[in-house]
Design a protein that fits this description.
The protein is α/β, with parallel strands linked by helices and about 525 residues long. About 35% of the residues lie in helices and about 20% in strands. Bound molecules: threonylcarbamoyladenylate and magnesium ion. Threonylcarbamoyladenylate binds next to strand 5, strand 6 and strand 10.
Length: about 525
């Protein structure tokens, strides 16, 4: 089929109206995103929309009208709340759901007994509806699952050859789809956030909830109030990951990444390939540019994208709602002081893992080094230790490690006292020096409760015989001494249960492959 490209001229709009009237499909601009329209009262025409988009048949469409009063024939009743919302926000980026009238067929409503109605603010959209002489059912004019089109050129990419016509109306004003609110429940509920925010709606009708699914993924058994929310959405081909952190941390993080793209704000200091989506404190600019940015990333061939997290207030809620779906709900928490916690029992060969991570650009914080530093430098911690154990452990202003070891290693309670004095200071110093992406390399990881400070924890494990041999060789001690050392630590089961990932290192395994696959999964 040849797809005609129409302008916004009187003649073209009249032609487009005729196509809709005769059961055809026309894509048209709205103030949110481009819509793919058909006569809402013509079941056969509406079915074509689902086919062309590849849209699941249980995902209902929004019915677009050009005059406020046109809502009356489509719904059972216009409630007081609906009346207030219509007065305030029609025409505009708000969609209202009400119990449907007999005029609405099952295809438009996806089998539900409600209908979604919206009166667009965009004049071309309203002129088209008027020219067609019928309400227009229209989802966003993208292939199902792809980012919604905010420019005619993106509609052409997805729909050329599949629909009758596309009206080119330039860039969409808001760039994210309308706010969807259902009034078919006891308390009105926002099912999809948009440019009309919860606060704005609250001012008009008082009580309103926002569906939990707006910012969270749907878990397996849940049924969606809005069927559209259960599907993977807005997804570019690239794997998108949201980095939850401040500007500086984001910059440090992405600048350390290779073979990745940044999806960031205009003034971010990023020196890997990047695409921006608006300005940091301007949620409207982010909304306007997000979908185009996602499409640009695909065009640039991005495979891995790290996205800057938007503020989730006001229109930012809508931006985050779209972005987190584009990211298939993958968020990495870089607000924790350390990106990765690395631990393992004595002799497990944690050092190899640490060295490899260092070669990949991770900032390694070796707690052993910090402990030595503390013992060397004297200071308040060492005075505390002297008070707790014996003044004799200080020699020339430094802690005598050997003597301290003799005191604590055979006495569990004393060892705990030592840990409770030294660990917090070690973690504090590491935190001060940490720069993302960082690795907290700590043998006494769990003893120090360090897992709470790390985004993910990896432990390195090896068979006990292997570990014994390594310790004997490394420290020149007997098997008995080595056993004693191992027995003073948590057992392997504990390490495994409390870590996110386990890496095996008996000597034959490839540590790099194992670490690469962990990194692929978490970053
Ligand atoms: O801004 C917009 O709303 C754009 C422009 C073209 O108007 N349209 C749009 O349509 O975004 P679509 O189909 O991509 O998204 C409609 C959303 C879907 O999540 C759908 O499940 C939900 O609205 N929806 C429609 N009718 C519903 C109903 N009766 N009950 C619950 N959810 C409904
Ligand atoms: Mg859509």
């Amino acid at each position: 089929m040849e797809t005609k490209i129409f302008s916004q001229s009187e003649y073209d709009i009249t032609e487009a109206g005729k196509i809709i009237e005769n059961g055809g499909l026309v894509a048209f601009p709205t103030e949110t995103v481009y819509g793919l329209g058909a006569n809402a009262l013509d079941e056969q025409a509406v079915k074509k929309i689902y086919a062309v988009k590849g849209r699941p048949s249980d995902n209902p469409l929004i019915v677009h009208i050009c005059k406020k009063e046109d809502i009356y024939p489509l719904v059972k009743e216009v409630t007081d709340e609906a009346e207030k919302l219509i007065d305030e926000f029609f025409p505009g980026p708000l969609t209202i759901i009400l119990p449907k009238s007999d005029k609405i067929g099952n295809t438009v409503s996806g089998g539900l007994d409600t209908v979604a109605v919206r009166m667009p603010e965009n004049e071309t959209a309203r002129r088209l509806i008027a020219a067609a002489g019928c309400p227009i059912a229209a989802p966003s004019a993208n292939t199902s699952g792809l980012p919604s089109p905010t420019k005619a050129e993106y509609v052409i990419v997805d729909m050329n050859g599949k629909i009758d016509a596309i009206i080119d109306g330039g860039d969409c004003k808001f760039g994210v789809e309308s706010t969807v609110i259902t009034l078919a429940k006891d308390v009105p509920e926002i099912l999809r956030p948009g440019a009309i925010t919860e606060e704005m709606i609250k001012k008009v009708i008082g009580k309103v909830n926002t569906s939990k699914a707006v910012l969270e993924g749907m878990s397996g058994g849940e049924t969606a109030a809005s069927p559209g929310m259960k599907y993977k959405h807005y997804s570019p081909k690239a794997k998108v990951v949201i980095a939850d952190c401040d500007k500086k941390t984001y910059e440090d993080f992405v600048n350390s990444r290779q073979n990745a793209f940044a999806l960031c704000f205009e003034n971010d200091n990023v020196n890997i390939p990047k695409v921006t989506f608006g300005k940091e404190n301007d949620d409207l600019s982010q909304a306007k540019e997000l979908f185009a940015a996602l499409r640009r990333l695909d065009k640039m061939g991005a495979k891995k994208v790290y996205a800057r997290i938007p503020h989730t207030s006001g229109v930012g809620t809508a931006v985050y709602n779209r972005l987190i779906r584009a990211a298939a709900f993958t968020v990495i928490d870089l607000k924790k002081p350390f990106t990765i916690g690395l631990t393992g029992q004595s002799g497990a060969g944690k050092g190899y893992a640490s060295e490899y991570l260092k070669s990949l650009g991770f900032n390694i914080l070796d707690t052993d080094k910090y402990v030595s530093m503390i013992y060397q430098n004297g200071g308040e911690i060492n005075e505390k230790l002297a008070r707790a154990f014996s003044p004799d452990i200080i020699k020339n202003g430094k802690i005598d490690k050997k003597m301290l070891g003799q005191i604590v290693f055979s006495d569990k309670e004393k060892l705990n006292t030592l840990n409770s004095i030294v660990h917090p200071e070690v973690i504090r110093l590491c935190e001060k020096d940490a720069k993302v992406p960082s690795v907290l390399d700590a043998p006494q990881f769990f003893e120090a409760n360090a897992q709470e400070k790390c985004y993910k924890t990896i432990c390195v494990c090896a068979d006990s015989e292997t570990r014994l041999k390594r310790i004997m060789k490394r420290d020149g001690i007997t098997k008995e001494q080595a056993k004693k050392r191992i027995n003073s630590q948590f057992d392997e089961k504990y390490y495994k249960e409390h870590s996110d990932f386990v890496i095996i290192n008996n000597g034959d395994e490839d540590i790099k492959i194992q670490i690469n696959s962990v990194l692929e999964e978490i970053l």
